[in-house]
Every structure is written in structure tokens, then in C-alpha cells.
Amino acid sequence: MSRKINTPVSLPSIDQVEAEMSKIKYKSRFFKTLLSTISVLVVVAAAAVLLSTLLFPVVQVSGDSMEPTFTNGDVLVILKTKDISYGDLCCASWQNKTLLKRVIGMPGDSIDIDSEGDVYVNNELLDEPYVKEKSIGKCESELTCQVPEDKYYLLGDQRENSSDSRNPDVGCIAEDQVIGKVLFKVWPLK
């Protein structure tokens, strides 16, 4: 024969039920907030990637051809634009590399560099306070150049050590090679 044991069942109090309901509601709010936060972060990250790809690419300076303006390792934000002018620091695509140089000559300009490293644009001496030491550098081409239509003449700020438009392999940069101009430096902060 089996014997039934009656165990008393106790019902939770109203306070216990309310406390448990409060925990369930808290967990629900927590997960909704977490999901909402993750969604916002994904949207912000996607927007940042789109902006950096389409409008504001970020580049890191490699080498010393733009010293003292920029040094190796500097991180720059570029504004994608074809609207560049004299003195702009611009990035251009050349042989699967990105060149960072200064715009010296525009389409149609006559560029002449004398033996002292002085640069003349349309027979006028160019004021270059950003160049520490003037030099013709490792120049393998004529130091007089007529900039073709739809092209730009670019030079690095450190003339002794810069592969730029003076090099026949680089030459004048075509308009469609221009990525954009430097907007600001991100890193280092100083």
C-alpha cells in the first residue's frame, strides 16, 4: 500500500510576486537597452566607414618627404575633392601608392627650378616658408616644365628626399589621380 504524504504548499506573498515581476521587467528592459545600444553602435560604425571611404579617407604619412610639415607616422584626414589650388597639401594615387605632396603648379603653368633649388612658377619666385632647405634633390628630369592640361606639378617639402613631379617616373599628376587635399591632422595630437 502506498501512503500519500501531504506536504503543505505555501503560496508566495504579494510582495514576493511583485519582487519577481520587477526582476523580470528589469531583465526585459536591460536586454532592450542592450540591443538598442548595439544597434546604435553598428549604425554609427557603418556611417563612419561610409564617411571615411566616400568623403574623408584617413591616411598615415609614410616617409619623411613632407617634413617638417608632416612626419612619418602622422595620421591625416583627407577631403575627397578635385578642387585643389596652389600650396594645397594633396594626396594622389600613383602606382598603387598614395603620394602626399604640395601643389606647386596648376595646368598650363611653367615651372622652373634653378641650381640653388629656388622654384619659379610662371617666372615668379615661389615663396616657400615650409621648405627648410632648398635643393634640387635627386632630380632626373629637366628642371623646366610646362604643366600639361588636366595635370598638376607636385613637390615634397623636403626637396632632398622626395619622389615627386621632378622624377620622370612620377611626372605631373593627372587630375583623375588626385584623391583630395589634407583637411587636418588627427595624430599625434600636438
* Low-confidence segments: none
- What is the terminal separation in angstroms? 90 Å
On the 0-100 scale, what is the average pLDDT? 87
Shape: rod-shaped
Radius of gyration: 32 Å
Succession of helices and strands: HEEEEEEEEEEE
Strand content: 25-35%
Molecular structure report:
The protein is of the alpha+beta class and 190 residues long. Helices cover 22% and strands 28% of the residues. The strands form two sheets. A seven-stranded antiparallel sheet has the order 1-2-11-3-4-9-10. Strands 7-6-5-8 form a four-stranded antiparallel sheet, with no helix packed on it. The radius of gyration is 32 Å and the shape is rod-shaped. The model has no long low-confidence stretch (mean pLDDT 87).
Summarize the structure.
The protein has one helix and eleven strands; from the N terminus they run H-E-E-E-E-E-E-E-E-E-E-E. By secondary structure, it is an alpha+beta fold. The radius of gyration is 32 Å and the shape is rod-shaped.
What is this structure's SSE topology?
Elements: H1 14-54, E1 58-60, E2 75-80, E3 89-94, E4 97-105, E5 110-113, E6 119-121, E7 124-125, E8 144-146, E9 151-155, E10 173-174, E11 178-187
Antiparallel strand pairs: 1-2, 2-11, 3-4, 3-11, 4-9, 5-6, 5-8, 6-7, 9-10
Which tags fit this structure?
single chain, 190 residues, alpha+beta, 7-stranded antiparallel sheet, 1 helix
